[in-house]
Every structure is written in structure tokens, then in C-alpha cells.
Input
Amino acid sequence: MLLDVKDLEVAYGDYQVVWGVSLSVAAGESVALLGPNGSGKSTVVNTISGLLPAKAGDILFEGISLVGRPTHARASLGIAHVLERRRVFPHLTILQNLTLGAWHPAAKAARSRSMDRVFSLFPRLSERKGQLARTLSGGEQQMLALGRGLMALPRLLMVDEPFLGLAPQVIEQMKAVFETLKAEGMAILFIEQNVRLALSMVGRGYILESGRLAIDGPAASLMNSPEVRRIFLGA
Ligand SMILES: Nc1ncnc2c1ncn2[C@@H]1O[C@H](COP(=O)(O)OP(=O)(O)OP(=O)(O)O)[C@@H](O)[C@H]1O
Ligand SMILES: [Mg+2]
Output
């Protein structure tokens, strides 16, 4: 396994929100982490990338425990995390945002090649490279956030709600980019509330309910599961 999360527990102070969550992603595999609002999806990925400390459990990346390692060390091992709500540096240009994505030595060495690749995936960014990020549309900012993640040359890409608030046309463009990345062998963990959309892009999924793993399995079986419908629509 590329990523192996074992019995993860996470708390904000005394307030525990993640309880015994285990999940894995194999090299080159696409997996969805699904759950309704507030079920703990972002808390789990933020803990995998090191933005939050684990209270208990283990997080292995290629068999190496990440627990206690800072975020930048996890990124240099090959984990990219595209945060919720398309965080980009608003007062920097597209070019500057992308350059900052390639900060660790291996990524820095490949910077111009990676930049070409991002621009070929997202021609709109190429057309606007000198523009400040804050002047971009929501869809373009999401493309930039993803592009910046790719600049770090990840082997595991974790994207937190990459489709949220995007127009149908832009969703299709983003999906096409993810399909390209998958075909190139990148492992992707999709964090989503939109069950149908996410399951259409992955082989397997995990569903969180109130910070606990409720159900997991192949995408096709989750798609038709009454249990999944209950979790998302209520009883
Ligand atoms: N900084 C924080 N301090 C305290 N509680 C928090 C904090 N961030 C999140 N929580 C709580 O943790 C729980 C899980 O939140 P989290 O953001 O991980 O859920 P989510 O599944 O990503 O939800 P969403 O779909 O809204 O993004 C929620 O009850 C939330 O209120
Ligand atoms: Mg979230």
C-alpha cells in the first residue's frame, strides 16, 4: 500500500471528531473518502498531511510512519494536499503560485518541466500566467490550486472537494484532468460530498458518518447501497 491509515483518532482539544478510522490507497489507485457535512473528511486528510496531529493510530506512507513528521517532510515524501476551498495566494500571480508549489529539492529541479505540464493540463492558466490569483474565477482558482499541488511531483494527490461550487462545464474539465493523472499512474484520494460524482471516478470508496467509518467497498456497490442513501439523505 502507498497510504495506510490505521485506527486514526483525531481531536480538537478535548473534542474528538475522528474515531478509529482506517483506510488505504494503493499505488496508482483512485479512492474516494465520502461523508456528509461535518462527518470528519477534512479532519482526516488534514491529519494525513500533518496539518493536525493524530491523537492515536498510525499513518504509513510506503511503510514509513508519518506520525510526528512535519507537513513539509510529508510533502517531500510525495504527498500533495489540495485544501478545501481552493486556497491560493491571492496577491501572487499564477506563475508565482505555481513556482511556490515546487519548493522541495526534487520538485525544484523539475520546475520548468512541471510548469509546462500544468500549463498543458490547464491552458487557461497559461493564458493568464501573469495575472494575480485573486482575479481568477472560482474554477480557475481550483485549477491553480490543483496545478500548484502537481508542481510538488506527488505520488499521492489528496484533493478536498475539488468540484465544490464549480459550473458543470468546469467540472467536466477537472474530471478530464483527473482522468489524465490517473492514466499516468498517480494515486488520488478524492474527498467529496457528492457521492455520484466521486464514485464515478474511483474504484473504491469509504464513507464516514459522524467521524466513524460507516461502510466501504467497491464504487459500484456503494452507488446502489441503501445504507449510503440513508447516511446522505437521513433515515
Ligand atoms: N478547528 C476546529 N475546531 C473544532 N472543531 C472543528 C474544527 N474543524 C472542524 N471541527 C469539527 O469537526 C467535525 C468534522 O469536521 P470536518 O471539517 O472534518 O468535516 P467535513 O466532513 O470535512 O465537512 P464538510 O463537508 O463541511 O467539509 C465537525 O463537527 C466540525 O464542526
Ligand atoms: Mg471538509
